[in-house]
Design a protein that fits this description.
By secondary structure, this protein is of the alpha/beta class. It has 7 helices and 13 strands. The structure holds S-adenosyl-L-homocysteine.
Length: 242
């Protein structure tokens, strides 16, 4: 059996009880090097298989092979495994293989949720996730979806905002969103949410690119009602407070 285990944003206290149990009871743990290091303190006798970035398919094939050999496999994935994580490709490979191996997934705290709880309460209304990585998605599709987020005035959670290979996509996203949203729209940048080196910036749409943004940053762009006050970013749901 394959247990797809979400390991959350970084702090081991953010794993669910059932996720911890699935790792403890596994005979083999498979994952990306960085996430294996993260859960290392929890590991006892489990065998460990890890590899680097862009080796996702290989990693999942290994998990499948081990499960077919009778191992109890925990495939670990950062944040939530179902949000730009390993859950999808793992299911696809198992289906292609004849669907004989069972999968159980354990949800986790995705970067946007971890960031939101640090910022205040910015995602209290309708929201979307958009990844700016064009490794697996055509840039035209990404642009179209940013326009749609703007048209709908969704709170927009931006993942994979900037890498060395594509430093300008975040500028592009900002420009597109400014076609629909005010330049003063509240924005929260959280780097390394729930990790030792966490950094929080509260800013606005027009200035958001003036700050350090990297692949460990998640960005939350508010809607027309989102405001920043006393160090907190808040989106009102609309409750009558009278
Ligand atoms: N499955 C993961 C997302 C993987 S995509 C999840 O659910 O969170 C990788 C992107 O997620 C990063 O480029 C960054 O934008 C975001 N991310 C993941 N962990 C983060 C953290 N601790 N702090 C800030 N952003 C994070």
């Amino acid at each position: 059996m394959i247990h797809v285990v979400s390991t959350g944003p970084g702090d081991l206290n953010c794993l669910s009880y059932e996720a911890v149990k699935a790792i403890e009871e596994a005979t083999v743990v498979v994952g990306y090097k960085k996430y294996i290091e993260l859960i290392r303190p929890m590991l006892k006798d489990q065998k460990v298989h890890f590899n680097g970035m862009k080796k996702e398919v290989e990693r999942c094939r290994k998990a499948l092979q081990l499960a077919k050999e009778g191992e109890r496999v925990a495939l670990v994935s950062g944040g939530d495994a179902g949000i730009y994580g390993m859950a999808g490709i793992m299911h696809e490979l198992v289906l292609e293989d004849g669907d004989e191996v069972a999968i159980q997934s354990y949800p986790g705290i995705t970067a946007a949720m971890a960031a939101a709880s640090e910022l205040g309460a910015p995602i209290v209304h309708d929201s979307v996730y958009i990844s700016l990585s064009d490794l697996l998605t055509d840039i035209e599709v990404i642009k179209k979806r940013i326009h749609a987020a703007g048209i709908g005035d969704f709170i927009t959670c931006i993942y994979n905002p900037k890498s060395k290979g594509r430093p300008y996509y975040i500028e592009m996203a900002k420009e597109i969103l400014m076609e629909y949203k005010s330049p003063e729209t509240a924005v929260g940048l959280v780097r390394n949410a729930r990790r030792d080196n966490q950094e929080i910036i509260l800013t606005d749409l027009k200035s958001m690119c003036d700050h350090t943004i990297d692949m460990s940053t998640v960005i939350i762009v508010g809607n027309k009602d989102t405001f920043i006050k006393k160090g907190k970013m808040i989106t009102p749901r609309g409750y009558d407070k009278s």
